[in-house]
Amino acid sequence: MATLFQGVGAVTPFSASSSLDSNKLLLPSRKSLSISDSRGSIFVYRSDALNLKAATRKQDLLIPNAVATKGETSTSAKSGHELLLFEALREGLEEEMERDPRVCVMGEDVGHYGGSYKVTKGLAEKYGDLRVLDTPIAENSFTGMGIGAAMTGLRPIVEGMNMGFLLLAFNQISNNCGMLHYTSGGQFTIPIVIRGPGGVGRQLGAEHSQRLESYFQSIPGIQMVACSTPYNAKGLMKAAIRSENPVILFEHVLLYNLKERIPDEEYVLSLEEAEMVRPGEHVTILTYSRMRYHVMQAAKTLVNKGYDPEVIDIRSLKPFDLYTIGCSVKKTHRVLIVEECMRTGGIGASLTAAITENFHDYLDAPIVCLSSQDVPTPYAGTLEEWTVVQPAQIVSAVEQLCQ
Amino acid sequence: MIFDYIEIFILTFCEQLITKEEGLVLYEDMILGRFFEDMCAQMYYRGKMFGFVHLYNGQEAVSTGFIKFLKKEDYVVSTYRDHVHALSKGVPAREVMSELFGKATGCCRGQGGSMHMFSKQHNLLGGFAFIGEGIPVATGAAFSSKYRREVLKEPGADEVTLAFFGDGTCNNGQFYECLNMAALWKLPIVFVVENNLWAIGMSHLRATSDPQIWKKGPAFGMPGIHVDGMDVLKVREVAKEAIERARRGEGPTLVECETYRFRGHSLADPDELRDPESVSSLAAEKAHYAGRDPITALKKYLFDNKLASEQELKAIDKKIEELLDEAVEFADESPLPPRSQLLENVFADPKGFGIGPDGKYRCEDPKFTQGTAHV
């Protein structure tokens, strides 16, 4: 478990040696199914899956306070194991496949090739070609196939090689995935997980660098989460698989090689809750996925300049965790949203509306939303850099907001 | 040699395609389908149901021929023309009727409507409004069946899935993608094409480069069969073979049933192109198929082979009429869904709405929860 609180370790996209201790600073006294105390570190869900034996055995080993608090860094510094984000995803996936034989993976190149980002490496040898299914290049149909399998008792995970390819599956995601539980009057559940990498990479070109969270946002009946660290990647992957709702898990191409120390014990995170990355007093900065690292980089500069930003990784893109966000807004009265999604109709726009509607009285200044430009991602490196929000822009936005 | 001739003689003379019980079951099912659809039309014009209602008159042989071979655990996936598939699969007529009326006692609690009939109990996986959308879902159900047999090693997991769709769908990408995947993994599925020659107003011949759909099966490595969809006994023969093939694990089959719909595409369709007054060749088409009404054909077969008498069939007619009257009465008297039902069933797990474990919204969003009961 990430123990050292290093505050604002400057994280480059391809490696993170310092870990961001997210969980030990969660807000206390929240009503949840956690078995921990008021430090609220680990959320364990007793799922309604059929086979609880393995889970209960592991839960006997669970330590409620595995997360060290600020003072106790030395003793628990060596517990847990270090791994990269894609390995964390794989670990979560493997644990769930081990636990429930109905969990299966389908996607392009997930089997023999091991996944284009190696998230499913080794799983096909272990579980067979039918549980880790290599599909032909037919996104709409294999997503629909995943939905049909979910309706009839399996728990599939559909991998889009790139989130952009899921645009081809939009028919099935919008019409069937989100709707069938409702139009069947609650008769069929669709416990499917759709995951894949998205976001702006390193000069991957326009079509491979799409920021699609907003496209799926309005579909009623689905949940969306975005992971950003190995710790929350594994926890969210497990939670998504155990959830009875269809969940879309957004990963980011540039975050797959982040390294962090995560606990050895089993843990499952909550799909609807946000993560407090750094508590503060002056301004609330809401972010998710890769932008979290740009924000933390900017936060370092801001701290040096005397500001005290509160950084929250919203994680849950649908539904928003308005409780955590609200508590924060009530404390700081200023909000800055930093996201990689498009300006028009993006997650930030939606979040701005939600905060304004609910917490208008608590705001001292209008909400500032920094999102990426409304352009197809250019190929040229310099142009690509200017498409997304950079730490310098975040710093000046906070300065302006706090005047 | 002579004994062979005698054997063949005896076999052809005595061989009956169906027994009396089977014949009556088929007749009852087709009559139920026909009368139900006629009742739907009546109710629609009386303002009891709205929207798009697609009727199945004329195509009953396909539904009855195939679905009456299935076990309860087998899956059926249909399109928007799904009332009769639901009835054949066993969904009670009163539930289908009240779903059409939009009442809370409908099979989908009034939330689906004419085009979205689902039944978990009878393994009817819907009712889809967009064409071709159900085919991947059917492929998924077949995959599930194969998974249960090979990975979970459940004994007796040999459920077959039937995917029904039309000629228009056979030009859609999802159809081809699923034919490929089903043949690739030898999934236990039968693709049943109800080729009624018309996709609303688009003739199949004007929309398809090679109108012989059954030929597309062998292109993907599965048998493609063409059958006269107006003759329930011929459909039954083909269905038996295709379903048993799938059950044995030998893979999918593509069956093209040549059939016809007597009414328009939907109740809102003026059906001008096939108007007897207008284009003469199409009027001839309509008359030609009316003469091949599957119910009339089955009646004739039953009478000719002395399997049933006039009174028995009339008794069945009366029974179905009473059943439908009761269904309409039930639907009329059922309550409309209350407001509190609006947000139910959006999520299987209400945490998706941001509801905490105590049943309340974790953050009270006034706009969101105004006027609705707790989920």
TrEMBL record, chain A:
Its main location: plastid. Coiled coil: none annotated. The keyword Lipid biosynthesis does not apply. One of its GO terms (molecular function) is pyruvate dehydrogenase (acetyl-transferring) activity. It is an enzyme of class 1 (oxidoreductase). It catalyses: N(6)-[(R)-lipoyl]-L-lysyl-[protein] + pyruvate + H(+) = N(6)-[(R)-S(8)-acetyldihydrolipoyl]-L-lysyl-[protein] + CO2. The keyword Endoplasmic reticulum does not apply. The pyruvate dehydrogenase complex catalyzes the overall conversion of pyruvate to acetyl-CoA and CO(2). It contains multiple copies of three enzymatic components: pyruvate dehydrogenase (E1), dihydrolipoamide acetyltransferase (E2) and lipoamide dehydrogenase (E3). This is pyruvate dehydrogenase (acetyl-transferring). It comes from Arachis hypogaea (Peanut).
UniProtKB/TrEMBL annotation, chain B:
Its EC number is 1.2.4.1. Keywords: Coiled coil, Oxidoreductase, Pyruvate, Thiamine pyrophosphate. It comes from the Eukaryota. Its cofactor is thiamine diphosphate. GO terms for biological process: pyruvate decarboxylation to acetyl-CoA. InterPro entries: DH_E1, PDH_E1_Alpha_Subunit, Pyrv_DH_E1_asu_subgrp-y, THDP-binding. Residues 306-333 form a coiled coil. Residues 30-337 form the Dehydrogenase E1 component domain. GO terms for molecular function: pyruvate dehydrogenase (acetyl-transferring) activity. PANTHER family: PYRUVATE DEHYDROGENASE E1 COMPONENT SUBUNIT ALPHA, PYRUVATE DEHYDROGENASE E1 COMPONENT, ALPHA SUBUNIT BACTERIAL AND ORGANELLAR. This is Pyruvate dehydrogenase E1 component subunit alpha. It comes from Arachis hypogaea.
